[in-house]
Each structure stands twice: as structure tokens, then as C-alpha cells.
Design goal:
The chain contains nine helices and six strands. The protein is an alpha/beta fold and 201 residues long. The protein has a six-stranded mixed β-sheet with strand order 1-2-6-5-3-4. Helix 6 packs across helix 9, helix 7 runs antiparallel to helix 9 and helix 8 packs antiparallel against helix 9. The two termini are 37 Å apart.
């Protein structure tokens, strides 16, 4: 019977990429070492973490992996898939043979509305909160005369994603605090991943 590893997409770096839906379809009894390479504040933060995941920050992966079997299935997870891809490549270099990276990380997992372990309870935020956070943050990070995006009937996930992508690709020339602006975009992407349309919880 094919395993998650067998069905994953080969990556040129020697590991395999797994889609969130592939992982979600995995039977609960399947043996898989889930390793989250984010920092502790992220692991227990807004995006939460996968059930059964073990926190091993990226800087500590080499040391922690010394106790792992080289032939076991290892899935690496982070916020968006970048740090976990680095960890996956490192494990391949160390001789691990069944390494996988969760494509899109916890952003994709949350966006797909899959189960998450999160220390905070309560309903997810509404999409309008993402827009509010973005507009308030833009007012702080960008000169006040910069026009803000306007929505007719309220924001959609697609419209907010497009705005964030545009701001990321072409920051306004009037940005006063580049670091604060980048942090704002990151926080809004995290919030967008867990937000739901008005009336849906």
C-alpha cells in the first residue's frame, strides 16, 4: 500500500513535497514523525500547530536528528514551507531517506480549514478584521496621504490575498518603516489564514 512518502512530489533537493490535503487524508494510525521547525512563540501562536507535531526549531534540527532513524518517515513543517524546506534538505544531507516538507506550511493548512492545535479558543476572526488590521498598520507604516484599498461589499479572501501580494511585490514609496511594513504583511497573512467569512465559525 502506497505511503504518504510514496505519493509525495519529488523535490530536486532530495526530499518530497506534501500537499496539505494529502497529509489530512493520512490515517491517524500512520507512523510519521511530525517536526515543526518554527520558534516556540509561533508553535503556540495564531497559526497553531499540527496534532502530534514536535517542536524542533530550525537551528536545533541537526542536534535533535542525531536520535532519529534515517529510514523513518519525517515530515517537516513551518509557517509557509521555507524553513521546513531548509530542514528537509539538511536531513537529506545527513542521510535521511524518507524526508517530506509540508508545502505551504501552517498558512496553507489553516487556509484549508484543517484541524489545528491552538492554545487560544473561541471563534476564528472574521475577514473584515484582516482588512482593519491592514489599514491600521498601513496608516502607521506608510505616509498618511497614501490611498488605502477600498472594498464595496466587504473583503474576500481572494481580494485580501491580492492586496497583500501587491504590497509585498511593490511596497508604496512612502513606507516610513520598512521592517514594520514587512512585519505587518506577515501578521496579516497569518491572520488571513485563520480568518473566516462573516457569519462562519
Amino acid at each position: 500500500m502506497p505511503t504518504l512518502f510514496d505519493n509525495a512530489t519529488p523535490n530536486p533537493a532530495g526530499y518530497r513535497d506534501v500537499d496539505v490535503r494529502q497529509l489530512a487524508a493520512l490515517p491517524a494510525a500512520a507512523h510519521l514523525r511530525r517536526v515543526d521547525v518554527r520558534e516556540p512563540s509561533e508553535f503556540d501562536g495564531l497559526l497553531g500547530h499540527l496534532d502530534g507535531a514536535r517542536l524542533v526549531p530550525l537551528a536545533t534540527v541537526r542536534h535533535a536528528a542525531a536520535d532519529w532513524r534515517h529510514d523513518e518517515d519525517v515530515l517537516l513543517v513551518c509557517r509557509s514551507g521555507g524553513r521546513s524546506a531548509k530542514a528537509a534538505a539538511l536531513l537529506v544531507e545527513l542521510g535521511f531517506t524518507r524526508v517530506m516538507n509540508l508545502r505551504g506550511g501552517m498558512l496553507a493548512w489553516n487556509t484549508a480549514e484543517l484541524p489545528v492545535v491552538r492554545p487560544t479558543s473561541g471563534p476564528p476572526p472574521a475577514l473584515s478584521r484582516v482588512l482593519d488590521e491592514l489599514l491600521v498598520g498601513l496608516h502607521r507604516a506608510v505616509a498618511p496621504e497614501t490611498p488605502a484599498p477600498i472594498y464595496g461589499q466587504g473583503p474576500s479572501r481572494e481580494a485580501l490575498t491580492a492586496v497583500l501580494d501587491t504590497l509585498q511585490a511593490s511596497p508604496p514609496r512612502t513606507v516610513r518603516d520598512t521592517e514594520g511594513f514587512e512585519q505587518l504583511l506577515r501578521e496579516c497573512r497569518d491572520l488571513l489564514a485563520v480568518a473566516r467569512p462573516e457569519g462562519r465559525h
